[in-house]
């Protein structure tokens, strides 16, 4: 039915030992928690030795899935799609998630900060994909939607400032990337 | 990476810093009581929800009672005005969303959500819609339908997207309701917000996907209009190729509708769209080289991108193209070769397998050298892909068997897991089977391998194979040492296998018999029962003092002949056999082949990795067919099976009964094997038979048929019809077929069938037996040598006009298909834009007559194709027959 609409099968955020920080599965490909854990383990071990700390995302293919991934500090970001999916769509979702987490955590992207702000990370996952369908890919918009709704009164002003300066930073980064290409 | 000094202690007690350390479900559920406080502490409540979500995210499950309690408590939080808390409440409800049978829960939460849906806050509206659509059922949906329709055209893009995406989900469960929204969705397609347009387009297409005309209209209006986001553009490309697929080419001009649009997308600014368009073009059915060129050009540029994802996408697409249009990809070979050393192993593997597919004979050696360096540092799963690619390459260029076989034997000696070693062994076995010249070196490599093989399974397989092939070589005695070494050095399983192999040599090579006896006698003192038993049996049988049969041939048949009962049946019979005075009687085992469940169909959507190279599996279907046919008494005396066709479908996909047919050709007979599958769970079919009308196949006379006793749901079975035809002649005919059976109703709850059935029949599609069915595809190593040695005695040459053809390549493949012969030396591929082409074919015609064919094609301006056909064979009559096939085709 949905084979013509791009579908995200899961988004995983694991730590440097492959343990869950936050995960979201959007399809029934992995019906039980045990199967999910096994998948996470295999994704983690198969990508562990690769160099995914560069600016662009890395990509791997196994078990009939395509996985794009990116690491920073002790966090590993993964997005899985079917083997017929357009790799660059998956990479766009990954980049949106990655950058949005960066904005939310004010560039302190590590496991500890992520767990301390788990509510925001979960909201962020909720804003990116709904039931496998891509909702939003712009990091700024995702972060804005996740953060602004968590009305922690004291953080409000600084966070919105943060968002603007972050927006500028990512804009600069985008510019640099397009020049490098 | 160096950590700051201060953090050293922190690292050791890293866990201390998790805010969720020591978290327990029980205590969190206790904490959730704060949801019931009259004065809600929004912050505290948010924290508790986060903890609950953390538990769920870690895989913790709530019992039904726990979930219900949490759910009711959470609904209380709708009283709070805190937006942050509300957002967490939405998330929580989605995570523990009640099923629609929990009416009470649904009703409670629905009223709160409906209030939010009409709120002034956009965030509330968007989220309330998403949550509500998640838990709603048909009746509720009609109540909120009005709001959803409004939301779709809401000016806030977040609200509109929420409604549209929810619509996509709801279409699965309540299509008739969602279809009523198409006016609003149509309006949303024109939205200025990029993602709203994307979501609206996806929903509109799903609503109309069964209406070809509507989809075509949608595509044609959007390809002219403006599409705002890359994602929407990708969707449009997918829909465009769907329209192209369904409409087919414009027969006059050869142009496809909307192809211009796909081509224009290759110049889009977003890489995502370019890849999507390039892939769509390469996947068009019957894509021409003119259409391919622009797509290949952009993919080639992408091969040297700095981003791994783009390189991967490009090489993966080219890899697929290489399977069908190897010549189109050869231009990229230089860029592809530099990817062999790519850090990303998925990319490197794809590059190698692509090169193996597109490479020509002269580049094989250089390529093998590059791969050898690469093999040591990739994972086994990638190595297997490479091994399979090398196997197909070797079958394509048999002359290169030496270097490819050497490569295989080298990697066989290196470290590797079972699956990898098995893939290599399978490849060597296939090469030995298909390339006669590779046989002796191949067997030698296998012998060397078992000298130091840690896998019992592989050792026994190889020993069995040696027993079959070894005695037929020029010097069988040289294998004995390797085999007997196994008897001395290995575990019992391998020793027993080695004993059987020795006995085979003894029985097939008279000269070796005395020496084999000596070796077998030594095995009589083995510590293992099975080994001793086998040795005893073989010594007695080979010495001729046995009660089985009188002639030497009977003994061989008894020892090494094929088992003429299906193994599964033998197993069940042995299990039900209770030891008694009565000895077990193998002739009492039923020979009826039990229907095998369709394993391929049942695997839940899992496909093999798509870059795996398809090649024939290690067991040939012909062996299996031979066994199957010889188990049917009426058919077993037709002599040697000459050829079995690939299955031909006689029903459309997804009909009640799926039937395909395999044509088995014997010298004087033809047997149709109808493979039937019953796809209706409520039916049991009995006495299934296909009645075949031969009024358009005069030379065929039906002599036997074997009905299928029962055909239960989803377990395929076979029925056979046999015909007599003139001996050794390639008789043609057209057959119309009718499936007849007795149908019985099955109670799905008990699985029991009713006693009385009804006669019924089902029309199948017609079936043809053509000349190609009498031709075996058999490759020759060196066509020129074979051609020269055949000599011009029985040569027949003639010229033919083929009329207007689409292209030279199309004409070549049409003639190959008519003849059903094996293209040699890659001459079935026609280079782009060439005006003439020579194609070499080889095969064996019925009656075991070798046939070689040389086809010279020429094409002139208005696509008129002419062909010169030269046939050499061992029999002039056959050469004439080949010409007749072409003349009538």
TrEMBL record, chain A:
Gene Ontology CC terms, in alphabetical order: COPI vesicle coat; Golgi membrane
Cytoplasm found in the keyword field: yes
Domain spans labelled AP complex mu/sigma subunit: 7-144
GO process terms (BP): intra-Golgi vesicle-mediated transport; intracellular protein transport; retrograde vesicle-mediated transport, Golgi to endoplasmic reticulum
Gene3D superfamilies: 3.30.450.60
Signal peptide: none
Short name of one Pfam family: Clat_adaptor_s
UniProt keyword annotation of Oxidoreductase present: no
Recorded family membership: Belongs to the adaptor complexes small subunit family.
Assembly and oligomerization: Oligomeric complex that consists of at least the alpha, beta, beta', gamma, delta, epsilon and zeta subunits.
Protein name as it appears in the record: Coatomer subunit zeta
From TrEMBL, chain B:
Start and end residues of each Coatomer subunit gamma C-terminal domain: 772-886
GO biological processes: endoplasmic reticulum to Golgi vesicle-mediated transport; intra-Golgi vesicle-mediated transport; intracellular protein transport; protein secretion
Domain Clathrin/coatomer adaptor adaptin-like N-terminal: 27-543
Known function: The coatomer is a cytosolic protein complex that binds to dilysine motifs and reversibly associates with Golgi non-clathrin-coated vesicles, which further mediate biosynthetic protein transport from the ER, via the Golgi up to the trans Golgi network. Coatomer complex is required for budding from Golgi membranes, and is essential for the retrograde Golgi-to-ER transport of dilysine-tagged proteins.
All copies of domain Coatomer gamma subunit appendage Ig-like subdomain, residue ranges: 624-770
Family according to the record: Belongs to the COPG family.
Keyword Plastid attached: no
Organism: Apostasia shenzhenica
Oligomer status and interactors: Oligomeric complex that consists of at least the alpha, beta, beta', gamma, delta, epsilon and zeta subunits.
Primary localization class, coarse: cytoplasm
Keyword match Transport: yes
Record-linked InterPro entries: ARM-like, ARM-type_fold, Clathrin/coatomer_adapt-like_N, Clathrin_app_Ig-like_sf, Coatomer/calthrin_app_sub_C, Coatomer_g_Cpla, Coatomer_gsu, Coatomer_gsu_app_Ig-like_dom
Pfam families in the cross-refs: Adaptin_N (PF01602), Coatomer_g_Cpla (PF16381), COP-gamma_platf (PF08752)
Keywords on record: Cytoplasm, Cytoplasmic vesicle, ER-Golgi transport, Golgi apparatus, Membrane, Protein transport, Repeat, Transport
Compartments where located: Cytoplasm; Golgi apparatus membrane; Cytoplasmic vesicle, COPI-coated vesicle membrane
Start-end of Basic and acidic residues biased regions: 591-603
Top-rank lineage group of the source organism: Eukaryota
GO cellular component: COPI vesicle coat; endoplasmic reticulum; endoplasmic reticulum-Golgi intermediate compartment; Golgi membrane
Region (Disordered): 581-616
Classification via PANTHER family: COATOMER SUBUNIT GAMMA, COATOMER SUBUNIT GAMMA-2
Protein name: Coatomer subunit gamma
């Amino acid at each position: 039915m949905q084979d013509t609409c791009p579908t995200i099968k899961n988004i995983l955020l694991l730590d440097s030992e492959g343990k869950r920080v936050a995960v979201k599965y959007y399809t029934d490909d992995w019906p039980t928690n045990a199967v999910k854990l096994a998948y996470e383990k295999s994704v983690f071990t198969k990508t562990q030795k690769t160099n995914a700390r560069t600016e662009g995302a890395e990509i791997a293919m196994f078990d009939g899935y395509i996985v794009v991934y990116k690491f920073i500090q002790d966090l590993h970001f993964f997005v899985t799609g079917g083997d017929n999916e357009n790799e660059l769509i998956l990479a766009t979702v990954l980049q949106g998630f990655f950058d949005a987490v960066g904005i939310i955590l004010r560039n302190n992207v590590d496991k500890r900060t992520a767990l301390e702000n788990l509510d925001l990370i979960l909201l962020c996952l909720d804003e990116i994909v709904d039931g496998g369908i891509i909702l939003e890919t712009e990091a700024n918009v995702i972060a804005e939607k996740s953060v602004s709704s968590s009305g922690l009164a004291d953080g409000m002003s600084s966070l919105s400032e943060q968002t603007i300066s972050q927006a500028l930073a990512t804009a600069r980064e985008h510019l640099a990337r397009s020049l490098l290409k | 990476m160096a950590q700051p000094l201060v953090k050293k202690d922190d690292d050791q007690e890293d866990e201390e810093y998790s805010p969720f350390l020591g978290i327990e479900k029980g205590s969190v559920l206790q904490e959730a009581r704060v949801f019931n406080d009259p004065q809600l502490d929004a912050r505290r409540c948010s924290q508790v929800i986060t903890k609950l979500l953390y538990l769920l995210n870690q895989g913790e499950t709530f019992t039904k009672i726990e979930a219900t309690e949490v759910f009711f408590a959470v609904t209380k939080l709708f009283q709070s005005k805190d937006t942050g808390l509300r957002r967490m409440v939405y998330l929580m409800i989605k995570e523990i969303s009640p099923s629609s049978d929990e009416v009470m829960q649904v009703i409670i939460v629905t009223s709160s959500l409906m209030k939010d849906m009409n709120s002034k806050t956009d965030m509330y509206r968007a989220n309330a819609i998403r949550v509500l659509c998640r838990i709603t059922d048909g009746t509720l949906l009609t109540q909120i339908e009005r709001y959803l329709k409004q939301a779709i055209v809401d000016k806030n893009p977040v609200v509109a997207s929420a409604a549209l995406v929810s619509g996509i989900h709801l279409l699965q469960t309540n299509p008739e309701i969602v279809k009523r929204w198409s006016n609003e969705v149509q309006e949303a397609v024109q939205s200025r917000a990029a993602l709203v347009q994307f979501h609206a387009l996806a929903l509109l297409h799903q609503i109309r996907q069964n209406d070809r005309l509507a989809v075509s209209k949608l595509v044609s209006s959007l390809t002219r209009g403006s599409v705002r986001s890359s994602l929407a553009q990708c969707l449009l490309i997918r829909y465009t190729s769907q329209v192209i697929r369904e409409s087919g080419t414009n027969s006059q001009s050869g142009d496809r509708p909307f192809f211009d649009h796909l081509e224009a997308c290759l110049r889009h600014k977003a890489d995502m769209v370019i890849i999507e368009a390039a892939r769509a073009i390469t996947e068009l059915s019957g894509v021409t080289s003119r259409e391919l060129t622009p797509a290949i050009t952009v993919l080639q540029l992408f091969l040297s991108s700095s981003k791994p994802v783009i390189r991967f996408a490009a090489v993966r697409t080219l890899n697929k193209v290489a399977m069908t249009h190897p010549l189109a990809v050869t231009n990229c070979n230089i860029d592809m070769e530099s990817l062999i050393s790519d850090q990303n192993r998925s990319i490197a593997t794809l590059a190698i397998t692509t090169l193996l597919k597109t490479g020509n004979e002269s580049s094989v050696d250089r390529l093998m050298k590059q791969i050898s360096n690469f093999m040591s540092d990739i994972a086994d799963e990638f190595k297997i892909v490479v091994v399979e690619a090398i196997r197909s390459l070797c079958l394509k260029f048999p002359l290169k068997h030496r270097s490819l076989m050497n490569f295989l034997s080298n990697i066989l000696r290196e470290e590797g897991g079972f699956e990898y070693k098995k893939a290599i062994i399978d490849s060597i076995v296939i090469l030995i089977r298909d390339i006669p010249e590779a046989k002796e070196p191949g067997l030698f490599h296998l012998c060397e391998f078992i000298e130091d093989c840690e896998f019992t399974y592989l050792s026994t397989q190889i020993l069995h194979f040696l027993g079959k092939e070894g005695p037929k070589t020029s010097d069988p005695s040289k294998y004995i040492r390797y085999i007997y070494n196994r008897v001395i050095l290995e575990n019992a399983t391998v020793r027993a296998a080695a004993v059987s192999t020795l006995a085979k040599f003894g029985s097939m090579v008279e000269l070796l018999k005395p020496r084999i006896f000596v070796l077998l006698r030594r095995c009589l003192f083995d510590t293992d029962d099975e080994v001793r038993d086998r040795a005893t049996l073989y010594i007695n049988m080979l010495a001729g003092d046995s009660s089985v049969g009188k002639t030497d041939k009977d003994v061989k048949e008894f020892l090494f002949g094929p088992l003429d009962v299906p193994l599964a049946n033998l197993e069940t019979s042995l299990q039900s056999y209770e030891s008694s005075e009565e000895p077990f009687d193998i002739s009492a085992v039923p020979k009826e082949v039990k229907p095998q469940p369709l394993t391929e169909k049942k695997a839940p959507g899992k496909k093999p990795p798509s870059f795996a190279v398809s090649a024939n599996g290690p067991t040939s279907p012909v062996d299996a067919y031979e066994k199957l046919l010889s188990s049917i008494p009426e058919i077993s005396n037709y002599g040697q099976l000459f050829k079995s066709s690939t299955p031909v479908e006689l029903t459309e996909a997804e009909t009640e009964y799926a039937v395909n047919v395999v044509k088995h050709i014997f010298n004087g007979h033809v047997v149709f094997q109808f493979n039937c599958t019953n796809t209706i769970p409520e039916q049991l079919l009995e006495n299934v038979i296909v009645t075949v009308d031969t009024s358009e196949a005069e030379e065929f006379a039906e002599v036997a048929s074997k009905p299928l006793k029962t055909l239960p749901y989803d377990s395929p079975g076979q029925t056979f019809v046999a015909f007599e035809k003139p001996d050794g002649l390639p008789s043609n005919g057209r057959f119309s077929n009718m499936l007849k059976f007795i149908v019985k109703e099955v109670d799905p709850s008990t699985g029991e069938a009713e006693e009385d059935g009804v006669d019924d029949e089902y029309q199948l599609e017609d079936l043809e037996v053509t000349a190609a069915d009498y031709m075996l595809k058999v490759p020759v190593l060196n066509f020129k040598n074979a051609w020269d040695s055949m000599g011009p005695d029985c040569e027949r040459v003639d010229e033919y006009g083929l009329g207007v053809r689409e292209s030279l390549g199309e004409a070549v493949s049409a003639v190959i298909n008519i003849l059903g012969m094996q293209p040699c030396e890659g001459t079935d591929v026609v280079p782009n834009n060439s005006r003439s082409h020579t194609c070499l074919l080889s095969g064996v015609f019925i009656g075991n007559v070798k046939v070689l064919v040389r086809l010279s094609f020429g094409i002139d301006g208005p696509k008129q194709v002419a062909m010169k056909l030269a046939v050499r064979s061992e029999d002039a009559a056959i050469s004439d027959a080949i010409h007749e096939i072409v003349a009538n085709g």
